[in-house]
Automatic annotation (TrEMBL), chains A, B:
HTH arsR-type domain ranges (all copies): 1-84
Any Pfam family matching the protein: HTH_5
UniProt protein name: Transcriptional regulator
Species per Swiss-Prot/TrEMBL record: Actinocatenispora comari
Protein keywords: DNA-binding, Transcription, Transcription regulation
GO MF assignments: DNA binding; DNA-binding transcription factor activity
Amino acid sequence: MIRLLADPLRARMVELLADGALCTCHLVAELDAKQPLVSHHLRALREAGVVEREPHGRFTYYRLRPDTLTAAADRLTALAARARANAGVRREC
Amino acid sequence: MIRLLADPLRARMVELLADGALCTCHLVAELDAKQPLVSHHLRALREAGVVEREPHGRFTYYRLRPDTLTAAADRLTALAARARANAGVRREC
DNA sequence: AGGTCTCATCAACCTGTGCTGATATCAAGC
DNA sequence: GCTTGATATCAGCACAGGTTGATGAGACCT
């Protein structure tokens, strides 16, 4: 899941979608990317639950699912908390 | 930065380091990976500030830097918050 | 129905990067 | 000082996955 945010183009897509739902053509224009590429990444994001589809006539809108992002953030904070708790630990060789 | 956690091996390394500092040989053993590969990834993590070095004799220990993880988590929660605030927005075509 | 527009899917290509083997560097012990 | 063991660096390979072009499936309009 976090793996998807690694790609710079996908990261920009979720950044744009954080300000509201957009259709594919918006993303194509804003990102200056080819349409098949945008659709491809949107599919990946959708299958991972980062984004949800909203077909509107011949346009299809995509909307960010905040819960998925929150879940990822929680995993990171939990990791940080474990690291802080074990700050003094050092396994000997 | 989040980009680094995308690789499964690096993710496992961070997971292991969350339980306390480890030296390279520990990671090589636990991950069942070749030593140059582990050193390579540790370097990437270190240059991104995810991990810090602690040379101890001929061993070098690596320790997780929780603040870096927390910073990444905060960026994700901020993104989720923006998405929630703009839940009703939909730019027209 | 025909035409046009948006979007999705497919096949093929190509770049980035994870991985390996060989080698160098440094510390510890004899 | 020499050997041994741990770690870092380098060059090269291989493959995943990002990118592109062509094509197809629906939706809207006249």
